Amino acid sequence: MTIRAVIYGVGPIGQLIARVAFSRGFDIVGAIDIDPQKVGKDLGEAIGLGKTLGIRIESNADKALKDAKPDVVLHSTGSFFDRIYPQIMKAIRAGADVVSTCETLAWPWYRYPDLAELVDNYARSRDVTVLGAGVNPGFVFDALPAVLSVTLTRLDKITVIRSLDASKRRYSFQKKIGLGMMPSQFTDALGRGEITAHVGFAESVLLLANITGLKLDRVEEGQEALIAERNYETQYFKIEPGQVKGVVGHGSGFINGKEVVRVELRACVGCEDFEEVRLEGDPPITWRSTGTPGDPATAAVIVNLIPRVLNARPGLITLKDLINYSYTA
Ligand SMILES: NC(=O)c1ccc[n+]([C@@H]2O[C@H](COP(=O)([O-])OP(=O)(O)OC[C@H]3O[C@@H](n4cnc5c(N)ncnc54)[C@H](OP(=O)(O)O)[C@@H]3O)[C@@H](O)[C@H]2O)c1
């Protein structure tokens, strides 16, 4: 039976998700966005298919969802659960499962325990499933090291380092890491929430710890600007010496004052693309990749999870419910 999907959020990531879902044979039955530049356009044209799909991008989510009757909503409008949860509630009300790229939904009990309970109860009452996923949170800092840890008989510490060349990423990514800002402007904008840089360090740490059974007693996270020492240019930004060329950040999880989980991100113009997972214990193992291309990988993760979410238990779930193969503390 063909699975009916609605694209909720037709930004760069929603467009990639729509293209992958379309190419994989999912029946895209609706599209929602509030950007006036997109509302009223045909989805096929908006995502660059070169043909119309007969699906108008709608701004009225309730109506669009009622008309479309989707099995699943593929959601990518924002990073913070407290801002996007009304959208999730609309999808639940329409009786649809949800897979969302919202970073803080990957482990929603950390920042928003009350909202998590609200959405969990509502999803259960409507017999639908809600999942936050993506590439990070959703893969590199959590699901990947969790699965890799299965070959250890004793696990002392997990460290994940992700380095990526920000010049290869979409405009909204380059903007949110503050490219071209002066350092003080970056700090102010981050403090006021005008830019976010990476969101989800703590969520990844908690997701990873909960999958592997590590009982953390403290989590911390932080990030700061990387400053250009020469001129750089991307498709979207010109960066002069002294301006922001990227960010470096981390999340850490502790047991009795000892750091047992550490995830580190370095995202800058010209940074090398790689990921390294260091597992300390018995036997100690280091895995290294040539880098996961973040934007298409996010779309792949979301679309590949659709059948899993359709078959999952009702409620607000996390990847912990779907990944059952890891070291177990
Ligand atoms: N977990 C992961 O690994 C992962 C990976 C990639 C991206 N993400 C996250 O996924 C989200 C989407 O990424 P993006 O780059 O496509 O973001 P984006 O450029 O901000 O696009 C989001 C789109 O959703 C629209 N929108 C915002 N609020 C809406 C609402 N209430 N109803 C309907 N549409 C709404 C926006 O319209 P306006 O422009 O008018 O606001 C925009 O068109 C971001 O929060 C990003 O951080 C997560």
CATH superfamily of the largest domain: NAD(P)-binding Rossmann-like Domain
Number of helices: 11
Can you give the helix content as a percent range?
25-40%
- The shape is globular
Instruction: From the alpha carbons, calculate the radius of gyration and give it in angstroms.
Output: 20 Å
Topology as a string of helices (H) and strands (E): EHEHEHEHEHEHEHHHEEEEEEEHHE
**Architecture per CATH nomenclature, i.e. the level-2 architecture of the largest domain:** 3-Layer(aba) Sandwich
Widest beta sheet: strand line-up: 3-2-1-4-5-6-15
Strand content: 25-35%
Poorly predicted segments: none
The profile of the biggest β sheet is: 7 strands, parallel
- Hetero ligands: NADP nicotinamide-adenine-dinucleotide phosphate
The figure for the number of domains is 2
Number of strands: 15
Query: How confident overall, as mean pLDDT?
Result: 97
Q: The CATH topology of the largest domain is what?
A: Rossmann fold
CATH class of the largest domain: Alpha Beta
Q: What class, by secondary structure content?
A: alpha/beta
How do the strands and helices of this protein lay out in sequence?
Layout: E1 4-8, H1 12-23, E2 27-32, H2 43-46, E3 57-58, H3 61-68, E4 72-75, H4 81-93, E5 97-100, H5 113-125, E6 129-132, H6 143-148, E7 154-165, H7 171-176, H8 183-192, H9 201-212, E8 218-227, E9 232-233, E10 238-239, E11 244-255, E12 258-268, E13 274-282, E14 285-289, H10 294-304, H11 306-310, E15 315-317
Helix pairs in contact: 1-10, 4-5
The chain binds NADP nicotinamide-adenine-dinucleotide phosphate.
